[in-house]
Specification:
about 190 residues, alpha+beta, about 35% helix
């Protein structure tokens, strides 16, 4: 006699359909939630949480760290941007009457050091002391990338303001070789919503 499964084929299909939408609590599917679903579906009193994991795996799910997505990110706007970018490049090339238009992306990032106190082993009843200097030093990285070629330019600057941004733009124009024959369409972060 073969192994008896918790769910028959019809119930498996039903679970598959359930997994396509959010659980009733609005969160995400977990082994625990699938186990509770199986209990209700089969009328069994106790299904171990691990069995929920097993059935998630059977439906081609795996335990992964989520990729970060900004809460203001708009998928529709992003898709429109992808469709419209090649059209804009063609129009720019035609309007400027230049043989070459390259697309570059730009963003800036602040890097720096600040004191961080972490847990350490210490004798019970004695609180360890960590010597820190509460002073922050920052440096900004301005990065340009050509996604087609992978070419990059990086500039380390002391602050972010219009004066420094213009200095970096001028240097980038020299470094990338902007001329009468070659123009650059520069895409900045948040450019689509500006």
């Amino acid at each position: 006699m073969g192994k008896k499964y918790l769910l028959n084929q019809e119930q498996l299909k039903k679970l598959s359909k359930e997994l396509e939408s959010k659980p009733k609590d609005g969160g995400i599917w977990t082994g625990l939630k699938v186990a509770r679903w199986i209990e209700k579906e089969t009328g069994r009193e106790k299904i171990w949480n691990q069995r929920g994991w097993d059935y998630l795996k059977k439906h081609n799910y795996s335990w992964q760290s989520p990729g970060p997505k900004h809460r203001k990110g708009d998928k529709k706007t992003q898709e429109e941007f992808k469709i419209n970018l090649p059209i804009k490049v063609k129009e720019l090339k035609k309007n400027l009457q230049v043989p070459k238009v390259e697309v570059w992306f730009f963003d800036e990032h602040r890097v720096g050091l600040k004191p961080i106190l972490r847990k350490v082993w210490s004798k019970k009843g004695e609180r360890p002391i960590g010597i820190v200097q509460h002073r922050y030093e920052w440096l900004y990285v301005y990065g340009f990338v050509n996604p087609k070629t992978g070419e990059t330019f990086w500039y380390l600057i002391p602050r972010v303001n219009t004066l420094w941004l213009n200095k970096v733009y001028k240097q980038f124009a020299i470094d990338v070789g902007i001329s009468e024959e070659k123009k650059v369409l520069l895409i900045e972060d948040n450019a689509a919503s500006a």
